[in-house]
Amino acid sequence: MSSTCSRAFGGWLAGCGAATAAIAAIGQTVLMIASHGDLARLAYGIVVLLLPSAVIFVVTCLLTAIPAAIVIWLSEEFRIRSAGFFAAAGAAIGALSITVLLRHPAVWTSGLVCLFAAAGSVAGLTYWFVVRELAAREHAT
């Protein structure tokens, strides 16, 4: 049981990191377009985005802890090992998180829900991959 919990925790943290990276990548892309080829401006923007990325990671961890624990419990209880399940669950958690964070109907029409659902899907797939790899490594030894 302890190894299952540590695998799940490691996978969840990796998923939070992947979701943060997906969201930060959008910010970096906007920065690249806005810099118009000015490397100094781009480098400054990259440094400035480090703190918001750390905040996004912490908020992601806080908002997803309980829903992710429920999904992980369900997957263990019903022995669900499908990448599609974790991608869909991650997308649902991502959409739920931004809806809870920004309680305004415009969130659904602005495209933010799609961004967070995509980031959640990446997080779910990352969780699936990390847990699968950790389990395979544990069984090999």
What does the main sheet amount to?
none
Shape: globular
Q: State which percent range the strand residues make up.
A: under 5%
- Structural class by SSE content: mainly alpha
Number of alpha- plus pi-helical segments: 6
Using the CA coordinates, give the radius of gyration.
17 Å
Following the backbone from N to C, one meets helices and strands in this order, namely HHHHHH
Kindly state the mean pLDDT as a whole number?
93
Explain this structure:
The protein is an all-alpha fold. Helix content is 89%, strand content 0%. It contains 6 helices and no strands. The chain has helices spanning 2-35, 39-48, 50-77, 83-101, 106-110, 112-140. Helix 1 (2-35) runs antiparallel to helix 3 (50-77). The longest helix has 34 residues, at 2-35. The chain is globular and about 50 Å long.
Secondary structure layout:
Layout: H1 2-35, H2 39-48, H3 50-77, H4 83-101, H5 106-110, H6 112-140
Helix pairs in contact: 1-2, 1-3, 1-6, 3-4, 4-6
What brief labels describe this structure?
0% strand; 141 residues; 6 helices; mainly alpha
Would you kindly provide a brief summary of this structure?
Helix content is 89%, strand content 0%. By secondary structure, the chain is mostly helical. The protein starts with a helix and ends with a helix.
